[in-house]
Amino acid sequence: IGISTFKTAHPGWLTLSPIIPSGLGSRFQHPVVIKQPFFRVPSTQATTTTATLKIVQYSSADELKHVLKESKVMYWAKSLLDYTYDYIDHHIAISPTEPPFEIPCVRFVDTGVTLGYGQRNTSSKPGDKSNTKAGAVSAVFLLKEPILFNNKEEFTKFIHNMDCVPSLDE
């Protein structure tokens, strides 16, 4: 799908077993956007006229830290937004008059974290599986609901990530 300042985005799908009632994974081969953080390092062969950047994947431990931080921020943001709309709906319900303005309905996309597990063979002999170790985390991904709409709908992005540091860290 693309590359941003600090994450790559790829199309994918998610199938949970058992399938959950709502949200990501609520249907077989649920379309998702698979995001993976990275960092950029200057190329060693860059000249003064053509400075290129090399994309490098984080270690699994660092990748997990970055993905979990973003997913926690999304979880709390979504929770606070839901609480805000519950508050608004409650006060509209008990008010004798409608509000004099339209209240926009915005939402955050559904997100989730997935871990990729791999097998590692510690044997030096090709094809020898006697020393295979399973269960090591080989990659960490942030899954997001894709934004799909027909031609009559319009998408407005209200929040933009200027860097990978959530506002909570400032």
In what range is the share of β-strand residues? 25-35%
- Note the quaternary state here: single chain
| Helix content, binned percent | 10-25%
Helix/sheet category: alpha+beta
Distance between the termini: 30 Å
Question: What is the overall silhouette?
Answer: elongated
Main sheet: strands, sense, barrel: 6 strands, antiparallel
Number of separate strands = 6
Following the backbone from N to C, one meets helices and strands in this order, namely EEEEHEE
Radius of gyration: 22 Å
Low-confidence runs: 164-170
Number of contiguous helices: 1
Instruction: Let me know the average pLDDT.
Output: 79
Q: How would you summarize the topology of this molecule?
A:
Blueprint (H helix, E strand, L loop, with lengths): L1 E2 L3 E8 L15 E13 L10 E5 L2 H35 L16 E11 L10 E13 L26
Antiparallel strand pairs: 1-2, 2-3, 3-4, 3-6, 5-6
